[in-house]
From TrEMBL:
<dbReference type="InterPro" id="IPR036425">
    <property type="entry name" value="MoaB/Mog-like_dom_sf"/>
</dbReference>
<dbReference type="Pfam" id="PF24102">
    <property type="entry name" value="FLAD1_M"/>
</dbReference>
<dbReference type="InterPro" id="IPR001453">
    <property type="entry name" value="MoaB/Mog_dom"/>
</dbReference>
<dbReference type="InterPro" id="IPR050101">
    <property type="entry name" value="CinA"/>
</dbReference>
<feature type="domain" description="MoaB/Mog">
    <location>
        <begin position="4"/>
        <end position="162"/>
    </location>
</feature>
<dbReference type="Pfam" id="PF00994">
    <property type="entry name" value="MoCF_biosynth"/>
</dbReference>
<protein>
    <submittedName>
        <fullName>Molybdenum cofactor synthesis domain-containing protein</fullName>
    </submittedName>
</protein>
<dbReference type="InterPro" id="IPR056596">
    <property type="entry name" value="FLAD1_M"/>
</dbReference>
């Protein structure tokens, strides 16, 4: 299952806020066996959000959108998603029923209860702004605690073969490892990534535990300081 993550926020683009939502979703989706194939950040601009959602929804199995939900003028994500799927914004009956028994915005009727027509309402157990599912697009709040709470309500939709990952620590320069990394790729059905720092971490990833273990063992035998 190939997934795209779309983060909305001028503050993310300006470097004022670190995109922890995308990092957390990447880890959580990978744990469930889904593949995060792309991460995109766009400003709080309705046209930019609409265009990007439309593009990603046709290219990936699912799109997760975070940010831009709430009562302020820059919270335009829900309207943009509705436009991307040619839907009107309407007072959603499930949202209306939910806010009849939960505290909401002072003007909840005009904000939190309005979702794209035909969307699935997703309650927010950690805040007010609800999430929504429109076709293959999952709209989540931007506040990290709220994003996590809403995602867990839809997490079951994201499945796949959970990858097996092994890391080999190498006491050699990364440039000296090219031949052996190529050797792993040629002999084993795994993906390989190398990450220099204090030594080099070579990460092997695959869906077959025996294959990944064999690849890691092969590499450890052929590098200095292989751990």
């Amino acid at each position: 299952m190939d997934v795209a993550v779309l983060t909305v926020g001028d503050e993310v683009l300006a470097g004022e806020t670190t995109n922890t939502n995308a990092a957390w979703l990447g880890r959580r989706l990978t744990e469930r066996g889904a593949t995060v194939a792309r991460v995109v950040v766009v400003p709080d601009d309705r046209d930019a959000i609409e265009t990007t959602v439309r593009l990603l929804s046709t290219g990936y199995d699912a799109v997760l959108v975070t940010g831009g939900l709430g009562p302020t003028p820059d919270d335009v994500t829900m309207a943009a998603v509705a436009a991307a799927f040619d839907r009107d914004l309407v007072a959603h009956p499930d949202a209306v029923a939910y806010f009849e028994t939960h505290d909401g915005y002072a003007n909840a009727e005009a904000d939190a209860t309005v979702l794209p027509e035909g969307a699935r309402f997703v309650a927010n157990d950690a805040g007010v702004a609800p999430g929504a599912v429109v076709e293959n697009c999952y709209v989540l709040p931007g506040v990290p605690s709220e994003m996590k709470a809403v995602f867990e309500r839809v997490a079951a939709a994201f499945t796949g073969a959970v990858p097996v990952v092994k890391t080999v620590f190498v006491a050699e320069p990364e440039s000296a490892l090219v031949d052996r990394i190529e050797g792993v790729r040629e002999r084993f059905d795994v993906t390989v990534g190398s990450y220099p720092g204090d030594g080099v971490r070579v990460r092997l990833r695959g869906t077959d535990e025996g294959e990944v273990n064999a690849a890691a063992a092969w590499l450890r035998e052929r590098v200095e300081g292989g751990e």
